[in-house]
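Students often ask why inverse folding is considered easier than folding. One informal answer: many sequences map to the same fold, so there is more than one right answer. In these notes we will look at a single instance of the problem. The structure comes first.
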C-alpha cells in the first residue's frame, strides 16, 4: 500500500500507484485518510499549510506525518509546532509512507526524484512517468485554510484515490476539479498567482489613501475591510460582478468618475496581460523542469 503526492510551490501533483487501491473495509471508511501515513519532502510554506490543515481537521494524527528539510532549525520548528516527526533524510521519511508529498520548487523536483528513485516501492517510477496522477494548484490563502485549489485527475485515478486527494486539498480550503491538465496551468496564472494581483491592488489603494491624508494604519484597515467585505458580499449575493459594480455606480457620482479613470488607464487590459504573462511563465517553468527530469534519466 504505497502512494505518493508530489507538491511544488507553484503546483501540486498527486501521484498514487496501483497499489493504493483500497479493500472493501477501507472503501467503507468515513475518513479517506484514516490509517494513512504522509511524508512531506520539503517543509516550506505550502507544506506547512497542508500539515496545519490536515491536523486541524483531524484527518490524520501528528504521529502519521513526517516532514523533511535541509535546515535543522526549520525541522525543529515544525516538530515543535505540530508534533510531527521531522527528518533530515528524504528517503527515510518516504519509506513506509502511503502518500509522499514532494513540497519543493519545480526546479528542485528532478533532484529530489533522483534521490528517491527506487525507494518508494515502485511509486514514481522513472520520475512521474506513470498513469495514476492528480495534479493540483493551490494558492497563498491556503496558509489560513481559505485557499482555492484547482485539480485534475487522469482516468487511472480510482474513486477512493480521488477521495483522498480531495481530503488533502480540502484541508487547504476549497477545491475545484477541472476537466484537463492544461486548466491547472491556467489556474496557476489566475488563482495561484491571483493573490499577487490582489495584494498589489490593495497596496495601491492604501497608498492612495495615504496620499489623501489618512495614516497608513487607517488606510490599511479601510482597504482590508473593503476587499474582505466586497468578496463576501459578491459570493453571498450570487449576482454577476458587473451587476454588483453597476449597483454602486450612480450616474455622475464618485464611482463613475473613478471607473472612467480606471478604464482610461486600461486596467482590464493590463490585468489580462499580467495573467497571460503568468500563464506563459508557468508553461516555461514546466518545460524547464521536464528537461531537467529527462537529463536525470540519461
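Output (designed amino acids):
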Amino acid at each position: 500500500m504505497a502512494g505518493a503526492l508530489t507538491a511544488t510551490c507553484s503546483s501540486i501533483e498527486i501521484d498514487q500507484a496501483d497499489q493504493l487501491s483500497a479493500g472493501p473495509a477501507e472503501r467503507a471508511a468515513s475518513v479517506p485518510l484514516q490509517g494513512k501515513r504522509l511524508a512531506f519532502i520539503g517543509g516550506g510554506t505550502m507544506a506547512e499549510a497542508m500539515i496545519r490543515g490536515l491536523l486541524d481537521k483531524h484527518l490524520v494524527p501528528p504521529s502519521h506525518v513526517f516532514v523533511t528539510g535541509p535546515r535543522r532549525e526549520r525541522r525543529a520548528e515544525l516538530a515543535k509546532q505540530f508534533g510531527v516527526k521531522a527528518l533530515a533524510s528524504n528517503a527515510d521519511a518516504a519509506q513506509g509512507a502511503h502518500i509522499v508529498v514532494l513540497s519543493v520548487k519545480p526546479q528542485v523536483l528532478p533532484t529530489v526524484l533522483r534521490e528517491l528513485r527506487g525507494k518508494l516501492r515502485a511509486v514514481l517510477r522513472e520520475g512521474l512517468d506513470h498513469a495514476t496522477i492528480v495534479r493540483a494548484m493551490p494558492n497563498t490563502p491556503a496558509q489560513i485554510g481559505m485557499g482555492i485549489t484547482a485539480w485534475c485527475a487522469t482516468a487511472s485515478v480510482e474513486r477512493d484515490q480521488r477521495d483522498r486527494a480531495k481530503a488533502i486539498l480540502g484541508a487547504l480550503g476549497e477545491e475545484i476539479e477541472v476537466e484537463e491538465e492544461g486548466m491547472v496551468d491556467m489556474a496557476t496564472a489566475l488563482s495561484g498567482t491571483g493573490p499577487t494581483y490582489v495584494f498589489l491592488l490593495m497596496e495601491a489603494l492604501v497608498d492612495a489613501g495615504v496620499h489623501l491624508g489618512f495614516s497608513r494604519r487607517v488606510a490599511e484597515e479601510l482597504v482590508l475591510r473593503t476587499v474582505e467585505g466586497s468578496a463576501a458580499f459578491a459570493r453571498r449575493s450570487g449576482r454577476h460582478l458587473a451587476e454588483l459594480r453597476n449597483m454602486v455606480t450612480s450616474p455622475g457620482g464618485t464611482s463613475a468618475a473613478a471607473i472612467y479613470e480606471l478604464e482610461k488607464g486600461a486596467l482590464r487590459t493590463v490585468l489580462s496581460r499580467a495573467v497571460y504573462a503568468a500563464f506563459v511563465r508557468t508553461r516555461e517553468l514546466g518545460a524547464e523542469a521536464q528537461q531537467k527530469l529527462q537529463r536525470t534519466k540519461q
